[in-house]
């Protein structure tokens, strides 16, 4: 097919689903094993924060948006996953020691929104800005570590088993359901 | 007024090509060449670079954009749009007035035309153009300012807006300014980089979309992620 001259090539390489699969995997992974290790051997932890958005293959009508509370632990999120929806946006907390960076990742293009770097230290405004800029870069580095970990398993023979683990996570009762069952004595 | 970073929404691009050092006079000169210039009375849109500290300041000097690990400046986009409803209303009033004038003139004249007061298409277009210009002159522009963070060591640039039109303008202007190409780091592009260009294409070509909603035919033996199991050092307290 001849591409119109003024339009760029498909920058998603025809793999629009890669980002949503990554975020879906990251939701599961942050629930069962939130620790990641960067190239320097330092550990950081990933948690789903106050926003989770899942979509089906077509149409916004099939969108599930969960806000506030603990959307990652909600029954609604798992129901959506069981119905074949995938995570298209999620707000995460990346924690390194005492420092936390909150950010929302949009699956299609790995765009970040609402990146809140930790409050910078320093007496001068320039020092504080330099610290914030370094934190933003660190957040991208951490996201890349997560993405590289995902790709290592996604492109390996172990993916089918990993995908089954994600499915199992979807079919297992959510933390919300478990705590409700415990409180009603079932 | 100094630029600060409390919250950021950004798209990430990879710079392909050589960029002058951010402390170099050449870097400032390139920004100055494409600096923001205010809208002229008849223009509908203009854009260019301004400093990150002040959207009214478009003066760049050697090293003035350097902040910590990167260079920081901003894209300013001014737009002025004529209100379509107002344009139609003014055009209608003007046409009515002209029609009446023509009818009055025709009443007194001998050999009146068959359709008095009819305005030609050309005349209507000219009136429309004049009203549009007048409205443009009197419409204040709307302004958008988006930060640009250039990390030269990583050959990475973050553009502080996610809208498509703003990103298109940014990409074209940045490429023109520095004579480089920008590639959006979509999951696909970033995967190619992380997996290695050649083996990455092969690996990605071999994979297909996963349906997480498909029912489980066989439950896996363990819930431990493959990456964690491979490490062999999964700490029980982090595995719920």
Question: How would you sum up this structure, described in words?
Answer:
The complex is a heterodimer of chains A (186) and B (240). Chain A has 186 residues and is α+β, with helices and mostly antiparallel strands. Chain A has helices spanning 18-32, 75-82, 125-154, 159-171, 175-184; strands at residues 35-37, 43-55, 63-67, 86-96, 99-106, 111-116. Chain A has one domain. Chain A is globular. Chain B is of the alpha+beta class and 240 residues long. Chain B contains 7 helices and 7 strands. The longest helix of chain B has 25 residues, at 84-108. The chains are: A alpha+beta (186), B alpha+beta (240). At the A-B interface, helix 1, strand 6, helix 3 and helix 4 of A face strand 1, helix 5 and helix 7 of B.
Write the layout of secondary structure elements.
The complex is a heterodimer of chains A (186) and B (240).
Chain A: H1 18-32, E1 35-37, E2 43-55, E3 63-67, H2 75-82, E4 86-96, E5 99-106, E6 111-116, H3 125-154, H4 159-171, H5 175-184
Antiparallel strand pairs in A: 1-2, 2-3, 2-4, 4-5, 5-6
Chain B: E1 8-16, H1 25-33, E2 45-51, E3 66-67, E4 70-79, H2 84-108, H3 121-138, E5 142-151, E6 156-159, H4 164-178, E7 181-184, H5 187-195, H6 197-205, H7 226-231
Antiparallel strand pairs in B: 1-6, 1-7, 2-4, 3-4, 4-5, 5-6
Helix pairs in contact in B: 2-3, 5-6
List keywords for this structure.
heterodimer; A: 186 residues; alpha+beta; six-stranded antiparallel sheet; 5 helices; globular; B: 240 residues; 2 domains; seven-stranded antiparallel sheet; 7 helices; 38% helix; elongated; disordered C terminus
Describe the structure concisely:
The complex is a heterodimer of chains A (186) and B (240). With 186 residues, chain A is an alpha+beta fold. Chain A has 5 helices and 6 strands.
Structural class of chain A: alpha+beta
Shape of chain B: elongated
CA(first)-CA(last) distance of chain B:
48 Å
Rounded to the nearest angstrom, the radius of gyration of chain B is 30 Å
Q: Any idea how many domains of chain A?
A: 1
The total tally of domains of chain B equals 2
- Number-wise, the strands of chain A total 6
* Structural class estimated from helices and strands of chain B: alpha+beta
Number of strands of chain B: 7
Helicity of chain B, as a percent range: 25-40%
Name the beta content range of chain B: 15-25%
Largest sheet of chain A: 6 strands, antiparallel
The main pleated sheet of chain B reads as: 7 strands, antiparallel
């Amino acid at each position: 097919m001849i591409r119109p001259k003024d339009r760029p090539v498909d920058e998603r390489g025809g793999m629009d689903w890669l980002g949503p699969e990554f975020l879906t995997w990251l939701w599961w992974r942050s629930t069962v094993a939130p620790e990641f290790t960067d190239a320097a051997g330092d550990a950081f932890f990933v948690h789903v924060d106050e926003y989770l958005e899942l979509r089906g293959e077509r149409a916004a009508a099939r969108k599930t948006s969960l806000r506030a509370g603990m959307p990652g632990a909600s029954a609604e999120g798992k129901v959506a996953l069981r119905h074949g929806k995938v995570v298209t946006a999620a707000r995460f907390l990346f924690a390194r020691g005492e420092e936390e960076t909150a950010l929302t990742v949009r699956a299609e293009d790995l765009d970040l929104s609402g990146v809140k770097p930790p409050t910078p230290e320093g007496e001068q405004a320039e020092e504080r800005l330099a610290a914030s800029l370094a934190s933003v870069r660190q957040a991208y580095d951490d996201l890349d570590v997560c993405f590289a970990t995902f790709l290592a398993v996604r492109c390996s023979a172990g993916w089918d088993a990993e995908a089954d683990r994600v499915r199992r996570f979807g079919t297992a009762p959510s933390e919300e359901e478990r705590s409700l069952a415990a409180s009603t004595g079932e | 007024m100094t630029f600060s970073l409390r919250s950021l929404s950004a798209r990430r691009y990879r710079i392909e090509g050589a960029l002058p050092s951010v402390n170099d006079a050449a870097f400032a000169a390139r920004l100055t060449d494409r600096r923001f210039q205010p809208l002229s009375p008849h223009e509908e849109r203009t854009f260019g670079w301004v400093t990150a500290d002040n959207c009214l300041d478009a003066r760049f000097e050697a090293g003035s954009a350097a902040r910590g690990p990167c260079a920081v400046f901003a894209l300013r986009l001014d737009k002025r749009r004529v209100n379509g409803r107002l344009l139609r209303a003014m055009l209608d009033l003007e046409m009515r007035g002209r029609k009446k004038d023509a009818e009055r003139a025709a009443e007194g004249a001998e050999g009146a035309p068959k359709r008095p007061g009819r305005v030609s298409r050309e005349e209507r277009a000219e009136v429309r153009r004049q009203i549009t210009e007048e409205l443009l002159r009197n419409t204040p522009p709307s302004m958008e300012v988006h930060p640009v963070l250039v990390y030269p060591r990583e050959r990475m640039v973050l553009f502080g807006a996610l809208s498509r039109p703003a990103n298109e303008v940014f990409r074209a202007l940045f490429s023109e300014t520095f004579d480089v190409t920008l590639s959006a780091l979509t999951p696909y592009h970033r995967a190619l980089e992380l997996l290695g260009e050649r083996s990455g294409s092969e690996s990605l070509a071999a994979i297909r979309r996963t349906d997480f909603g498909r029912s489980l035919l066989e439950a896996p033996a363990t819930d431990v992620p493959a990456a964690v199991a491979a490490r062999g050092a999964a700490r029980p307290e982090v595995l719920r």
